[in-house]
Specification:
Nucleotidyltransferase, domain 5, 6-stranded mixed sheet, 5-stranded mixed sheet, 6 helices, 15 strands, globular, kinase, polyphosphate-glucose phosphotransferase activity
Length: 258
């Protein structure tokens, strides 16, 4: 791919807060207890980096951000944590949602998460958080095959959330063919073909070292080509932990009084 690769930010720089470094640099202090939260259209799942237990509660079209925060605090009352990572099912800019999620109640844009949760919060797109948890080094392209199409890229440790879903593809968009609508409309066999075609188009354009397919429908994929592997939805948790490895590119929102 032509052009220079992204440069790492200097310690005193103020790069966009949508970026977050991987764990290739300074790791978070072992004393920092982190609650990692994956907000989905059917469940909210969460765990801390100090133990293996995963807890969850139902989400859905009636879940408001205030209700989510209240349930999260209620179900983690016996856990100790210092900071929180939130994986949000929609576009995020400068650490804040910019569009309402499709499968949840409205009110997520402009909501005060740090104040409601009474902890410093870092919020990123859910695909970006899962990408960070899947990262092994080099140039990684992550594609989340779920209700829609989530996407993110990590280049030499720098995470860049992407919004590829609504780019034109064939007669519609990428999401129309490889999201849930495409799976239901075309069936598994054709859907798999579209997924592989999209993967090859994006590999040619972005030149990743590897592609990770995540999301709820990724297990439907078989016979993947070299350089493409399946991810795991559970990778969202270590991705949330890694958000706190370096405070340069993903600055937290801190509630007043802390």
């Amino acid at each position: 791919m032509s052009g220079p690769r992204p440069r790492r930010a200097a310690a005193g720089a103020e790069p966009p807060t949508t970026r977050a470094r991987s764990s290739r640099k300074r790791p978070a202090s072992p004393a920092l207890a982190i609650l990692s939260v994956d907000i989905g259209g059917t469940h909210v799942k969460f765990r801390v980096n100090t133990g293996p237990e995963v807890r969850r509660f139902d989400s859905g079209p009636d879940l408001t951000p205030a209700a989510m925060c209240a349930q999260l605090l209620a179900q983690t009352g016996d856990w100790t944590f210092d900071v929180i990572s939130l994986g949000y099912p929609g576009p995020v800019l400068h650490g804040k949602p910019v569009l309402e999620p499709h499968n949840l109640a409205p009110g997520w844009v402009g909501f005060g998460y740090a104040a409601a949760l009474r902890h410093p919060v870092k919020l990123v797109n859910d695909a970006a958080m899962q990408a960070l948890g899947s990262y092994r080094g080099g140039r990684l392209l992550f594609l989340g095959l779920g209700t829609g199409l989530g996407s993110a890229m990590i280049v030499d440790g720098i995470l860049e959330p992407m919004e590829l879903a609504h780019l034109p593809y064939r007669k519609h968009t990428y999401e129309d063919y490889v999201g849930l609508r495409g799976l239901k409309k075309h069936g598994k066999k054709k859907w798999r073909g579209y997924v592989l075609e999209v993967v090859e188009l994006l590999r040619a354009a972005l030149e990743p070292d590897e592609v990770v397919l995540g999301g709820g429908n990724a297990p439907l994929m078989h016979d993947l080509p070299p350089g493409v592997r399946l991810g795991d939805n559970a990778n969202a948790f270590p991705g949330g932990f890694r958000l706190w490895d370096d405070d340069v590119n993903a600055r937290p929102h801190v509630p007043e009084g802390r």
